Amino acid sequence: MAKKFETLRNKMSPERQQAVEKRVQKTIAEMPLADLRKARQLTQSQIGELLKISQASVSKMEGQTERNGVRLDILILSSYMGYLSKRHDFCCKKD
């Protein structure tokens, strides 16, 4: 039987746990918004409801890529995740 990641993580040194968390956060920050949403098994409508915007606005955010050489999805992700991370049921969803 596979071990739960939490069990494995608890066996790691605090330094190793911190390094893993840093790598996870870097990976999340680099994910396109649509991939991040799909990884959490959420629809555009559900995200729109959480953010109090329309599904079409979520679609537009996910579709934007660059403006003046800056990746917009990274900029949007900052506020997107800032809001969602405050929601325990989103950020700590158990599979």
Task: Give your account of this protein's structure.
The protein is mostly helical and 95 residues long. It has one domain. Helix content is 69%, strand content 4%. The protein has a two-stranded antiparallel sheet with strand order 1-2. A hairpin with a 2-residue loop joins strand 1 and strand 2. Helix 4 crosses helix 5. It starts with a helix and ends with a helix.
Strand-helix topology:
Layout: H1 5-11, H2 14-30, H3 33-39, H4 44-51, H5 55-63, E1 66-67, E2 70-71, H6 72-85, H7 88-91
Antiparallel strand pairs: 1-2
Helix pairs in contact: 4-5
Secondary structure tally, helices: 7
Please report the total strand number as a whole number.
Answer: 2
- Average pLDDT works out at 76
Label the structural class. mainly alpha
Given as residue ranges, the uncertain stretches (5+ residues, pLDDT < 50) are 90-95
Q: Radius of gyration, rounded?
A: 16 Å
Total of domains? 1
Name a few traits of the molecule.
about 100 residues, mainly alpha, two-stranded antiparallel sheet, 7 helices, about 5% strand, globular, disordered C terminus
Quick gist of this model?
The chain is mainly alpha-helical and 95 residues long. It has 7 helices and 2 strands. It is globular and about 45 Å long.
